Amino acid sequence: MPALPARARRRAAALALATALLTAAPIGLAPLASPALAAASASPVLRFTDIPGEGGTVLKGNVYEPGDGADHHPLLVLPSSWSLNDLEYLAQARAFAAQGYVVVSYTPRGFWGSGGEIEVAGPPDVADVSRVVDWALAHTTADPQRIGTAGISYGAGISLLGAAFDPRIRTVAALSGWADLADSLFSDETQHLQSAGLLAVAGYLTGRPGDELRTTLTRYFGSDWENEPAIRAWAAQRSAATYVDRLNGNGTAVMLANAWGDSIFPPNQLTDFYERLTGPKRLELRPGDHATAEATGLAGLPNDVWTDTRAWLDHHLKGVDNGIDRQPPVHIRPQLQDGYEDYPDWRSVTGSTRTLNLGGRDWLGTGPLSAGPARTGWTTPISTALDSGADGGVIFLSNLAEQFLKVPPTVSVPLLPRPVAAVWQSEAYGSAQRVRGSVRLHLGVTPSAGQGSLVAYLYDVDALGTGRLVAHAPYTFLGRTPGERFTADVRMQATAYDVPAGHRLALVVDGVDPLYITHNPPLATLTFGSPADDPSWVSVPLK
Known about the structure:
alpha+beta; Rossmann fold; Jelly Rolls; 2 domains; twelve-stranded mixed sheet; ten-stranded mixed sheet; 13 helices; 27% helix; disordered N terminus; hydrolase
């Protein structure tokens, strides 16, 4: 028997994998429709297809259609994640099709078998969303009045951008996506080393980066700050935050779901974007890292994110009165906990703030962190030559441990080396401190060089001195005068964390973290202080 051509072998393998995924176990998602509807749509039909994208570029995809014989069904478009392909959503696509949806999944251009080059959610990717919708309306039973998009990570970003430019898309569910790409890649001028590096490697292994992407990566990792405006302009074009007025004008219903510890697309840029949306909207935040909260749903297992996504789409595309529109739209699960909290908006997550003043360190090298009068006139120098051991963790691994094992990144606060780490610690609290929102640090800094970086961490410290990471953020400064003091205002990533009674809060600041590219010259030092005219403090948001 002659050998099959390479393309035929790939399609055969894809079909075999699809069959294995769909027959290995029943879909375990909680049903959101009546038994009668489920029975009527119990045999969705799967087919693989080529879809013409923008400019005729071939996009590899698959289509699940209900087997109920109806003429019109709501359409759900699912662009796959970075470095994955259209097989990613098979379990979820089948579940949606069984509930009456036409589901079209596709591999974005530049990856796997799709044509073109990787555009990183650039204009061709945005136009591809509309071309996929066009194709679905022409070749399936999709209803032109009921169109939605959804996706994880890269698929989430493309879905939001596609909805901004195509008013036919009525609703979006963006899971572990970004709204502001520049803020995600280098917040406070600090490049995110591990996350960007992982994306770059995965892109080269599974796709075809174009000249523009290769140039941008060279600039990004090369730390050539003269190129920063060009990188930011490139990122802004690929950010839904740039086009929020379009989404608002279209009246698009937007659901956003991310993890507190998302090390690729951190939560602050998403909460800021959420606050700017004026149409129907929902924000969900849970423990975990990038795409880990919704990952089990891709295997067809019960999953809160996908259950809520289904309810959101059912309401806005099928008119199902499931109550999701009457629920408080901000739905969060605090770190290390199992229950949820609900709020009418993001600002209501924080009930009050407590300002804690930083003081000079004692003979053990630890400064006080306390309410009351400002403490001024002290200085605390550190060297930026070495990592102190206070870190944000390892991409994916650390936040996965927190999500599933309830073990966040930890350090022994008493053993942190004071020559390379400044430490301030509160007294033990008599009651639980329920941290909700973004911790802010206002810190006087005198650098020995004109540029450099610092990383700030807030820890929950038990009676043995073990610190569990609550929140952190990097900060990079450029163009400063050596020896001249300035004030660093650092906004840590949003969190929801309960510090138990009897524990303390500790603020740690050092100059090195493996998650980031820091910019301290050799032998550089940072001296922290609190002059009388501008005291140093940390503001803790509380419920």
